[in-house]
Design a protein that fits this description.
The chain is built from six helices and eight strands; from the N terminus they run βαββββαββααβαα. The chain is of the alpha+beta class.
Length: 180
């Protein structure tokens, strides 16, 4: 990069802004999310169960003693990254960034129950509820101001357009656990 030059993200890596129907399906799926917070320029990331609800709110339970919660209380900001399947079978990454806050206790119980219902079958509600009540004492609400999604299909299409690409090249060009 030279002085004054503005670099732009290559088209193959540009995401789609906003919340599409496909992104909402990923957010509604039974997958985990990675929550990102920052403390003095150091990024902290943690995997969580989460609940997405319109109009674009994300909730997760946590212990008030965790680094992510301390960072949220200090800054009022967080990010959420969720990976799921796109409609064409590829991977779809959905990123939301914005304001975050700890819910007061009276509002958090109903949200925690809806969040748990996303992941826990009826037979596990009581035993898992006892465990989670012991370790997770708060619910965080994340209100993203921006949403972006990326599909691996974008990059895969460009790879398949390389002049050297032929059917079967994929298996020869990329390592997997099976061909290491």
């Amino acid at each position: 990069m030279t002085g004054g030059e503005v670099l732009r993200t290559p088209a193959e890596y540009r995401g789609t802004k906003g919340l599409t129907a496909q992104a909402r399906r990923v957010l509604d799926g039974i997958v985990t999310a990675t929550i990102g917070t920052a403390d003095n320029g150091v990024v902290h990331m943690a995997q969580v169960w989460f609940l997405y609800e319109d109009p674009g709110l994300v909730y997760f339970e946590s212990s008030s003693g965790t680094k992510k919660v301390r960072n949220i209380v200090a800054s009022g900001h967080a990010s959420v990254l969720v990976k799921g399947k796109s409609g064409d079978g590829g991977s779809l990454l959905v990123l939301g960034q914005g304001d975050a806050r700890v819910l007061c206790e009276e509002n958090s119980r109903a949200v925690a129950n809806r969040l748990r219902a996303k992941y826990i079958a009826p037979a596990g509600v009581e035993p898992m509820g006892r465990l989670l009540d012991r370790i997770d004492d708060i619910v965080v609400e994340l209100r993203p101001r921006s949403w972006v999604q990326w599909s691996t299909t974008q990059v895969n299409t460009v790879i398949q357009q390389l002049p050297e690409y032929e059917d079967g090249s994929w298996g020869e060009w990329f390592l997997t656990e099976d061909n290491r």
